[in-house]
């Protein structure tokens, strides 16, 4: 049997039928099932019948893929593709069946040939991790890499990132960089071996956004379950709201900043719905100092104030995700008053603004020294506090000043 043969594999009372693919290990068979999914099967104890030989020319397909180099065109913009890992740059590890980050940026270009002809590309790997392993140190490396790429003449940046913590990284770069060009984060909810993968549309749409006029940090992901639009979310206002849907990301408190109407024939268009920072309006600058000892604590009924004390110990600041307008149990107020570090109050509610002037608890919190987080998302508030502690002489004022669209001027219905 050879790669490209149609086979039937039986092992442990299970039967698999499909096209045999090359395997990264000699101990495993890889079969592409008729439904489009790949499966890895231990060779030991497996019986294989070849149903039809050479039904798929795997060797030619691999040669064609390996030859997808992008040639330089003076008439095209230059986009830097920066990889940090994640599902958009991942394959299946057939030893475990798990998705693992393995590709570098050049592999992504080979995997998404639709990118050819849209721009000139430079590839760069900052990290090769799943996004749950993201750290503030990698944010700094990423910000420095983006700064270097723009300095070197990139007309736009696409950051390929795992979706689970993408909103944190996008917030971090929003504060760390003044940018004259678009910086677009994108990822994939479903890996490339799945027939429902969103990697191609997201990558192509991100490049379209990276060559647009909006010089902000954006997140580009599916706008709905169909393959026709990607939403462009401001990096400080976006939240992942579903574990697995392709349209998992939403802008909180407003419509997305813009969208890309995806055209499989290469005629995609970018549209923006609200004001944005235009290309070349800002001078490139890097402010990547950050205080890592900041905690985010979610309050729930019955929580002991000792948990706040534990979170604040050895910390330089705390963000609390309070209830409603920004409240915690009144038993917490004395503890907050004794802390000698900034305490920022945000809300667990997805919509609306913190206002601690309505009820007695809120006014007591203000007297205890709490800073209202306005309508910032709790995760964004944590990242901003980390940045403010390292870059501001007046942290409380900075936390209440809109710097990168993280605070909206009014919380009003937007539908």
From TrEMBL:
Residues 1-51 form the GatD N-terminal domain. The active site is at residues 87, 163-164, 240. Heterodimer of GatD and GatE. The keyword Calcium does not apply. InterPro entries: AsnA_fam, Asp/glu_Ase-like_sf, Asparaginase/glutaminase-like, Asparaginase/glutaminase_AS1, Asparaginase/glutaminase_AS2, Asparaginase_C, GatD, GatD_N. GO terms for molecular function: asparaginase activity; ATP binding; glutaminyl-tRNA synthase (glutamine-hydrolyzing) activity; transferase activity. Residues 293-397 form the Asparaginase/glutaminase C-terminal domain. The keyword Lipid metabolism does not apply. Keywords: ATP-binding, Ligase, Nucleotide-binding, Protein biosynthesis, Transferase. One of its GO terms (biological process) is regulation of translational fidelity. Pfam families: Asparaginase (PF00710), Asparaginase_C (PF17763), GatD_N (PF18195). It comes from Haloarcula taiwanensis. The gene is gatD. It is an enzyme of class 6 (ligase). Allows the formation of correctly charged Gln-tRNA(Gln) through the transamidation of misacylated Glu-tRNA(Gln) in organisms which lack glutaminyl-tRNA synthetase. The reaction takes place in the presence of glutamine and ATP through an activated gamma-phospho-Glu-tRNA(Gln). The GatDE system is specific for glutamate and does not act on aspartate. This is Glutamyl-tRNA(Gln) amidotransferase subunit D. Belongs to the asparaginase 1 family. GatD subfamily. Residues 79-261 form the L-asparaginase N-terminal domain. It catalyses: L-glutamyl-tRNA(Gln) + L-glutamine + ATP + H2O = L-glutaminyl-tRNA(Gln) + L-glutamate + ADP + phosphate + H(+). Its EC number is 6.3.5.-.
